[in-house]
Amino acid sequence: MGLKLFFKRDTMEAGCDEAGRGCLAGPVFAASVILDSKKIITGLDDSKKLSEKKRNDLRKEIEDKALSFGVAMLNNMEIDKVNILKASFLAMHAAIDKLEHEPELLLIDGNRFIPYKKIKHECIVKGDGKYQSIAAASILAKTYRDEFMQKIHEEFPDYGWIHNKGYPTADHRTSIRKFGATKYHRMTFTLLNDQLSLEL
Predict the structure, then answer these.
(1) Is 5 exposed, middle or buried (0-12, 13-18, 19+ CB in 10 A)?
(2) How far apart are CA 198 and CA 122, in angstroms?
(3) On the chain, which terminus has fewer CB atoms closer than 10 Å, C or N?
(4) What are residue 34's phi and psi, to 5 degrees?
(5) pLDDT tens-digit map of 1-46
């Protein structure tokens, strides 16, 4: 059974999702997408279930066929200031700000959200595997963030960001222990399991 196109028919809905909440380095990205019911996009799903090639192919199709979309980010310093949960919501707000059409309903992936203006919202746990607009937002947020991490990998190649994308893998933590933290690391996160010998 495929993902649903609408939560509520005859309503301009924007799906919203983020990428990078659990990372040790880099920004959190968010996207908001209003799909066009007349332009079907086949294969939409939770971005984590798709191959990198499939995500990138779908990104182009989403950008071509969506009625409107917006992508935004909050960097690691902003995350450290407000905490990652709030940063995720603020990034979603910034993505919604970029939409060319004002939605009547926001479909939020997850169980919490900070209300945006006076627009109604629905929080949907694992919504990126249930609704096409949220899946589309998850794909945009993921691909834009991966692109950013690949770019800063060139600046700091010792951390393996081209592979781990800033997530807390064993090799990433080994590199932090060996080389210290960079300007892209989130200093309010537990960068090392023991937080010892970390050079800030």
Answers:
(1) middle
(2) 41
(3) N
(4) -110, 115
(5) 589 999 999 999 999 999 999 999 999 999 999 999 999 999 999 9
List, in sequence order, every residue forming a beta bridge with 68; answer none if it has no partner.
Answer: 34
For 50, what's the count of Cα atoms within 13 Å in the CB-facing half-sphere?
Answer: 23
- Backbone phi, then psi, for 171, in 5-degree steps? -70, -35
Scan for tokens 């980010």, then name that residue.
73
Rg (CA), the chain: 17
Query: Residue 70 is encoded by which pair of tokens?
Result: 């917006």
- Interior/surface letters 42-53, b for 16+ CB within 10 angstroms, e for the rest: eebbbbeebeee
Phi then psi for 113, rounded to 5 degrees? -165, 150
In SS3 terms, the chain reads as CCCECCCCCCCCEEEEEEECCCCCECCEEEEEEECCCCCCCCCCCCHHHCCHHHHHHHHHHHHHHCCEEEEEEECHHHHHHHCHHHHHHHHHHHHHHCCCCCCCEEEEECCCCCCCCCCEEEEECCHHHCEHHHHHHHHHHHHHHHHHHHHHHCCCHHHCHHHHCCCCCHHHHHHHHHHCCCCCECCCCCCCCCCCCCCC
Residues 188 and 77 sit within 8 Å (Cβ to Cβ): no
| Residue of 199 and 183 predicted with greater confidence | 183
